[in-house]
Design goal:
His_kinase_dom, transmembrane, EC 2.7.13.3, histidine kinase, two-stranded antiparallel sheet, membrane, about 70% helix
Length: about 575
């Protein structure tokens, strides 16, 4: 749909708005429910369902907790009470058998080594009876069986075991008493067997009770899950009825309006809050209809502005092409004649110097100097125009390396002036172009050497510190400084604060520095005062994969400083 057609539809929709509102009033009178019927909001229905679910959760949680506790009690009684008691009963029987075997062996052989099983059995029996008394708490019948076993065992030891042992020790014959001892011991074993039988019965009952409790618990949990699923299904159906249908109606009306049917009124019969939403959407539709015409007018104006910007961009592209052409001409067609002028003037002076007077030689010097200065100016202009326009690929660059390269290029000037360059710590690695960053350091340090104070040795300090997402670098010197009102002027191309007879140069160096820094995404500033030196600061973004945004605070080794 074109913009003109949309504007026409918006105008028609706005014109039929009053008629549509009249139809809406009539439709509402037919379709709206009786005002006497109270209706909950969507939130109210959800609260009712959630309250029922919370009540079900509480009931199910309490009931399930009771069933779980009952199952755990039965299981704990079986595993922590009955089963250990049966094991202890078997061990108790073993200790009694060891006692009887030891007594019988000692009586028949008079070997005292047979008394060791008897004595250890007596000790084990006492310990096992104590453990069984603890485990059988709450089992009076089995506790009575244990008491009977204890009494029978004590009687056997009192009436038979100890007398037989004592008789053998004194040299008497105790063999006839063994049969009576065995009969008494068999009675004790029968009592122990009765206790074990009762323990087995209790174990079977407890196991059956535990299984029944687990089955009841599992059945209850299955019923709980089914109840939750049923309540979830009921909630889904309820929300579908009271929310889903009205929302789909509202969606269909909104889609029609967004498709261009601006005359369609949006109305809804449903929960109160959804009706409020429908009224808000209807109000929004009315405002859209009213503002669409104004929007179309603004869009037309925007198209005009866009066309103007496109024309300006085309003009800028053409201007850049002309600048490229100028750079080519300047680098070839302009410099070659200047080189010829300078060369032939020098040849003229060399060949005919003895025939020329001083004024003629001065004229030749003026011509050669002018040609050389023109070549320097052209080269500086080319450098300035190429910064940021060439398609160099930005790569990781170690600033220490490019600074070393710049210092190497300035080695003659540094040696002649005795300048000392000190780095306050190591420099980071950034993403950029090594050639232009070398030019940046060379221009800044070269200016510090050029504008030195004749009365003192040049001291140049290179610093770096980490900031939030960037590196802050700077070059500080102790030169002649600069007045505060000229801090911005020095970054403008061709702006010079001193005459050419005082300091050479073209007035482009700091302009190139600013262009290099801005091309790398940073800013450059200058601070200082007359006679107090100059401090040039600039920022460079940190590399994205920079492992640690901190600068090593340790000073470089002495050999890193250049004097």
């Amino acid at each position: 749909m074109t913009r003109t057609h949309e504007a026409h539809e918006a105008h028609e929709a706005h014109g039929t708005l009053e008629a549509a509102e009249a139809r809406e009033t009539a439709d509402k009178a037919v379709t709206r429910r009786s005002s006497g019927v109270a209706r909950l909001t969507v939130q109210g229905w959800i609260h009712v369902v959630l309250a029922v679910n919370v009540l079900l959760v509480i009931v199910f949680a309490v009931s399930g907790g009771v069933l779980q506790a009952r199952a755990d009690d039965r299981t704990d009684l079986l595993t922590d009470g009955i089963q250990p008691a049966r094991s202890a009963a078997f061990q108790l029987e073993t200790s009694l058998v060891d006692q009887e075997t030891g007594v019988r062996g000692y009586v028949l052989s008079t070997d005292t080594s047979f008394l060791e099983p008897y004595e250890s059995g007596v000790r084990d029996e006492a310990a096992l009876r104590a453990r069984l008394s603890t485990l059988l708490t709450g089992q009076p019948r089995i506790a009575a069986d244990l008491r009977a076993v204890q009494l029978a065992g004590d009687a056997w030891r009192r009436d038979y075991a100890r007398p037989l042992i004592e008789s053998v020790r004194t040299g008497g014959r105790a063999a006839p008493g063994l049969e009576a001892s065995k009969a008494q011991f068999d009675e004790t074993r029968n009592l122990l067997s009765t206790m074990e039988t009762h323990l087995g019965q209790v174990r079977d009952r407890t196991r059956a009770s535990a299984e029944h409790a687990r089955d009841s618990r599992n059945l209850f949990f299955a019923g709980t899950l089914a109840a939750f699923l049923a309540s979830g299904l009921a909630l889904t159906l309820l929300l579908h009825r009271i929310v889903g249908r009205p929302l789909r109606t509202l969606e269909a009306a909104s889609v029609d309006v967004s498709g261009g049917a601006f005359e369609r009124m949006i109305r809804l019969d449903g929960p109160r809050d959804l009706e409020a939403v429908a009224r808000a959407v209807e109000e929004m539709r009315r405002r859209i209809v009213e503002e669409l015409s104004a929007s179309m007018a603004r869009e037309t104006l925007l198209e005009q502005r866009t066309a103007e910007l496109d024309a300006q961009a085309l003009e800028l592209k053409r201007s850049n092409a002309e600048l490229e052409q100028f750079a080519y001409v300047a680098s070839h067609d302009l410099q070659e004649p200047l080189r010829k002028v300078a060369s032939f003037c020098q040849l003229l002076e060399k060949r005919y110097g003895d025939r020329l007077d001083d004024r003629a030689k001065q004229y030749i010097d003026f011509a050669v100097d002018g040609a050389k200065r023109m070549q320097t100016l052209i080269n500086d202009l080319l450098t300035f125009s190429r910064v940021g326009r060439v398609g160099e690929k930005l790569v990781p660059v170690a600033l220490d390396d490019v600074l070393d390269r710049a210092l190497g290029n300035l080695s003659v000037a540094l040696d002649e002036t005795g300048a000392r360059v000190v780095r306050e710590g190591s420099l980071p690695t950034v993403t950029g172009d090594a050639t232009t960053l070398t030019m940046l350091w060379q221009n800044l340090i070269g200016n510090a050497v050029k504008f030195r104070d004749p009365g003192r040795r040049p001291e140049i300090v290179v610093r770096c510190e980490a900031a939030e997402g960037e590196w802050r670098l700077g070059v500080r010197d102790n030169g002649i400084g600069i007045e505060s009102e000229f801090r911005e002027k020095v970054f403008v191309i061709f702006q010079r604060l001193h005459g050419r007879d005082e300091y050479d140069g073209t007035g482009i160096g700091l302009a190139v520095c600013r262009k290099i820094v801005e091309h790398h995404g940073g800013i450059i500033t200058l601070e200082g005062a007359a006679g107090e030196g100059t401090d040039v600061s600039f920022t460079l973004p940190m590399a994205r994969d920079e492992p640690d945004p901190r600068v090593d605070e340790t000073a470089r080794p002495p050999e890193g400083a250049r004097t």
